[in-house]
Amino acid sequence: MQTKSVMKWLMAGIVLLVLIIVNLSIYQKERLLKHGTVVILELAPVDPRSLMQGDYMALNYALNRQLLDDGVQQSLDCQNDATLCTEPVNREKIVVELDAQHRAVNASFYRGQPLKAQEVLMKYHLSNGWLNIGTPSYFFQEGDAERFADARYGEFRVGQDGTAILTYLLDAQGKRILP
Known about the structure:
- The chain is α+β, with helices and mostly antiparallel strands.
- It has three helices and ten strands.
- Strands 5-4-6-7 form a four-stranded antiparallel beta sheet, with helices on one face. A three-stranded antiparallel beta sheet has the order 1-9-10. It has a three-stranded antiparallel beta sheet with strand order 2-3-8, with no helix packed on it.
- The relative contact order is 0.19.
């Protein structure tokens, strides 16, 4: 009898803990959407595809190529001259330089340097040899693929820790493509 009571309290505690964690995560994302820095990344060619649950667009960012070239060049420099390897590259974040319209104009791997006023940090990760900045795909309602095929930019909200949330896709004029 007593073990059943303990099990009920234990289960209630676990459920409560899960609810607290989920709600904390929601709160953090909502705060980022409200207070995060706007960063606009140019899209590289995108690929609309159909899934059983609706449509989505695989995203690639123009900065990926620049960052991959930067990483390869740094590796080559380090192999040729060890003195060029004194500043370790942060394997989690990049520095993105923004113009007056919040568009990314340059990016490099974060090396611990102080940021300038027009720079923000963004987290990235490597997946199957591919560098991912932000979100690799964007889901939208079935039948909207034609409208989203005109997307040229992704608008993000970025927190001070580099966490980024894709909020909108933008057309060539920088206008939000709404569902």
